[in-house]
Design goal:
By secondary structure, this protein is of the alpha/beta class. Helix content is 48%, strand content 23%. It has helices at 2-14, 40-54, 65-72, 90-101, 114-117, 142-165, 177-195, and strands at 19-24, 29-37, 63-64, 78-83, 105-111, 126-130, 137-141, 169-173.
């Protein structure tokens, strides 16, 4: 996700466009934000703000991320929503983003999370699983842990389908830097042709 934020920010910096971030948690509530500005130093600030929020060092009050985006962006803008979209209320959130898409140009940049759940086979029958984003711990069976990668992949496929149903474009990117850049360039070219 940090790499996708950096890629979007570098593109904006290169073209002298404004760039800002609204960072949200697993309940899709805003935890940090930086107003859109121009410049390399602002991009570095945005990336650092994201890093601090992931490490849990933010002190911001949580509020609805859609309202946060609307308060940050004054005119019609390109708004990439970058996430793994592994939160429970995805259908509601996509509906809200679809409403935002009526005014702005919103698209989803989905970080493929399958690799994070593709863990080696273990001999233990019960495994404690800790979610670093929410801070929750859960005990899962060895069989359930073995299925996590497929469940994450299936959920992301379902979110992509729901996004298409509400007319939101989705670009799915993985860990490979070159694949991500190729996917973004192809998406931008296709999108430009559609907008003409």
């Amino acid at each position: 996700i940090a790499r996708a934020v950096a890629a979007a920010g570098l593109s904006a910096t290169f073209f002298q466009d404004r760039f800002g971030v609204v960072i949200f948690n697993d309940r899709f509530e805003q935890v940090a934000a930086a107003r859109p500005r121009i410049g390399r130093s602002h991009l570095l600030y945005c990336i650092d703000l994201y890093r601090q929020s992931v490490l849990g060092k933010d002190d911001a009050t949580e509020r609805d991320v859609i309202m946060g985006i609307e308060s940050q962006v004054r005119k019609s803008s390109l708004i990439p929503v970058i996430s793994d979209f592994l939160f429970p209320d995805a259908e509601h959130i996509l509906g809200e983003l679809s409403k935002l898409n009526a005014v702005h140009d919103v698209f989803l940049l989905m970080a493929d999370a399958r690799f994070a759940y593709d863990v080696p086979r273990v001999s233990d029958g019960w495994i404690d699983v800790f979610d670093i984003e929410s801070g929750r711990t859960r005990v899962l069976s060895r069989r359930e842990v073995g299925r996590l990668a497929d469940r994450a992949n299936t959920w992301q496929d379902e979110v992509a389908r729901m996004a298409k149903d509400v007319d939101l474009d989705v670009v799915r990117v993985g860990l490979d830097r070159w694949e991500m850049e190729t996917a973004l360039v192809e998406f931008a070219a296709e999108r430009r042709l559609r907008k003409m």
